[in-house]
Design brief:
38% strand; mainly beta
């Protein structure tokens, strides 16, 4: 696992081989943030092929909500992000361009990618809700091939991200598997606390 510090901004730039047309291979998975130590890292991944990565067993102090079973079996085979911005005018930016995820797996959710904002969910202090949860997500020309999750979202999962601005285009989901939602799932759980916030969430998906 390549751990990206919560307060750093990373660009990981691969290249496309002019002869084979294949992106640079990267042998590793990315992770940033935890349930307690929220990430605010802006991350850009371009022209990479990430293969055969498997999410480790979940070790967060606070279990993720929304799953009825298997909550500790691992999330985000290739990319796991636990964080977001508390400022709706300055969202965390996650960018994926020309990435191939193939044969990645996670036991609980997001066979390739799991992004968890934990918006309105409990923190280490049960009296305080989390609002470090806002993300601006861009995905272009990515392929998810034969990714697997035993439970939810065989390829891509976004949990409790708010506010969310997502612009997703030219994505191929091929032969991914999960008990619920074989390819992608965007999900918001019931708030754990009295505070409710309102505002726009925008998800745009184009071929």
């Amino acid at each position: 696992t390549i751990t990206i510090p919560n307060d750093e901004n990373w660009i990981v730039q691969g290249r496309v081989d002019p002869d084979s047309g294949l992106s640079s291979a990267l042998d590793g998975r990315f992770k940033s943030g935890t349930a307690v130590e929220r990430s605010r890292a802006n991350i850009v991944l371009r022209h990479l092929r990430i293969s055969g990565q498997v999410a480790p067993i979940e070790v967060n102090e606070i279990l993720r909500v929304g799953s009825l079973r298997g909550r500790t079996a691992g999330y985000g085979g290739a990319f796991e992000y636990d964080g977001g911005s508390s400022d709706p005018s300055n969202l965390v930016k996650l960018v994926f361009v020309g990435i191939v995820f193939d044969h990645c797996a996670a036991g609980s959710g997001g066979g390739s990618i799991f992004i968890d904002g934990r918006a309105a969910q409990a923190t280490a202090d049960p009296a305080v809700q989390n609002w470090e949860s806002g993300i601006d997500l861009t995905m272009r020309r990515c392929t998810f091939y034969r990714s697997f999750s035993w439970y939810r979202a065989g390829a891509l999962a976004l949990w409790d991200v708010w506010p969310l601005v997502a612009d997703i285009s030219e994505i191929e989901f091929v032969h991914n598997e999960a008990l619920v939602a074989p390819h992608d799932k965007f999900f918001w759980n019931v708030p754990q606390g009295p505070e409710l916030r309102t505002g726009a969430t925008s998800v745009t998906v184009t071929d």
